[in-house]
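Please check this one:

***
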Amino acid sequence: MTTLTTTPDGRAARRSAPPASPAPAARRPRQGGTVLAVPALVWYLVFMIGPLLAIFVIAALRWPGMLQPVSFAGLDNARAVLDDPMFWDAVRNTAVQLTVAVPVMIVCAYMLGYYVAQRPPGHRVIRYLLFIPGLISTPAKAMVFYAALSPDGLVNGGLEGIGLGSLTDAWLASPSTALACLIALDIWAGIGFTAVLFAARLGSVPDELGEAAQLDGAGHWRTMWSVHFPVIRDYVGVVTMLQFLWTLFGSAQHVLLLTQGGPGTSSTTLSFLVYQKAFIAADLGYSQTVGVLLFLAGLVGLLTIRRVFRQNY
């Protein structure tokens, strides 16, 4: 670029302007966050992906105990599982458990959480009380239910006290009621904590939505299901997935502490069958084959719940 300048004698002269300095290059953000994530990624790969791959490997082995020789079994474990009546009993019991426990827990917890979110008198105390089942250890919960449902427990004593002694039963030792008792324990243990989660999410919904619905003549029931529920539909799906996984994979501890899968196989679930075959029958190949099927069932369940509860807008 050139400019015109005037010399001392009055004549115009051309002079080249100094070249413009290049604009400073935009600074790129440092990628230091990736380095900080490396320990967490390594931990996840070793302790999450590693055991998951080990399940599929062990399912193809004939392994009759931790210290016993191992041989390749191929699909023999899968054939043994599919031909075993105990496995199908466990599938039926698990299906009944999920079909009853998860919907009842989610619906009741949502209604309870909506009530708490309305800030009734003493709502802070109610929130603390709902956490009580979550603060009790699993063996303590099992002891509470054992004390209530044993032949000389609180339930039978109460029935006899009101003149309904004919309805007494050995609840945990009866094939017709053992699974129902475990389902009741699952619901009691999870409904309070789930209700607190729903109450926290509902508390972030603008009050104007409920007030507008009530001005239009909607009652609490319609406001709860037609106004607030669509707003937190995706959150309900997340909580449902968590409770589905907890019920599917965590029921073994309740079965172990209360019924041992009996009487017979009336309360045997898939998660307990994995434990029973691995640590009692010492058949690790069979156990992890059931574990693979359990993993696939959990994956299908998660995808189904996500599709059901996805937002429509």
About this structure: The longest strand covers residues 2-6. The radius of gyration is 31 Å. Residues 90 and 269 are 4 Å apart (CA to CA).
